[in-house]
Specification:
The chain is about 25% helix and about 20% strand. The protein is of the alpha+beta class. A 6-stranded mixed sheet has the order 4-6-3-7-5-8. The radius of gyration is 18 Å and the shape is globular.
């Protein structure tokens, strides 16, 4: 699905999951790209549009907290959730969306892609921004799914803490010229992915990520 080969591995720390002598082995891939084709801070421009692309759920992040919530709430994985027809196992273990095929055809028209993994939106989006700029996000466009609402309420997390920990429904953020935004959104919709304009890149004196009130 990702059109890449497995070329190595790494270890991951998951406190509370592994007992003595247990270990985890996870694979990763390494890619090469011509410098002129590299997306990110060298190509992202002020006034670029930021497009939020939906996630399928947790995307493998924040599970130390999720496991604590499962224990606290004494959830049965096979029982239906309080907010959907799916079971807790289905909601909490939804496979991560792979965006390669949906975005590959648009690479020449994109200036940046921020994959929202560990660290959430506030930890990943700033990585693609050039010095002297910041992301102005319209948080009213960020609609937490019932799953993320449940997490926020059960863990008593602020919106800022949620954005620092989870993707909150946005698995990828694409940056592009405003004139290309509609083309990208239409293409995503045809492929079954929901997307929306989340904000824009603006001038800044600090170069840090920023959200509109």
């Amino acid at each position: 699905m990702a059109e890449c080969s497995l070329s190595g591995g790494e270890t991951a720390e998951m406190p509370g999951l592994y007992l003595e002598k247990d270990f985890d082995l996870a694979g990763f891939s390494v890619g090469l790209v011509d410098r002129k084709n590299v997306l990110g801070e060298s190509r992202v421009k002020v006034k670029d549009c930021l497009i939020a692309i939906e996630s399928s759920g947790l995307h493998s992040n924040g599970y130390s907290l999720i496991r604590k919530l499962v224990e606290k709430e004494k959830l049965n994985p096979e029982s239906k959730t309080s907010f959907s027809e799916r079971t807790w196992a289905e909601e909490l273990l939804s496979p991560t969306l792979i965006y390669v095929k949906a975005l590959k055809i648009h690479l020449t028209n994109l200036t940046g892609l921020a994959h929202i993994t560990g660290g959430g939106i506030t930890g990943n989006l700033p990585r693609i921004l050039p010095a002297g700029s910041e992301a102005h996000l319209k948080l009213d466009t960020l609609k937490f799914s019932e799953l993320f609402k449940w997490i926020q309420n059960s863990a008593a997390l602020s919106t800022e803490q949620m954005l620092e920990t989870f993707n909150c429904g946005t698995g990828m953020i694409a940056a592009c010229d405003p004139s290309y935004a509609e083309t990208l959104l239409t293409s995503l919709a045809k492929g079954g992915l929901k997307g929306h304009v989340m904000g824009s890149v603006e001038n800044s004196s600090s170069g840090s990520e920023k959200s509109d009130p």
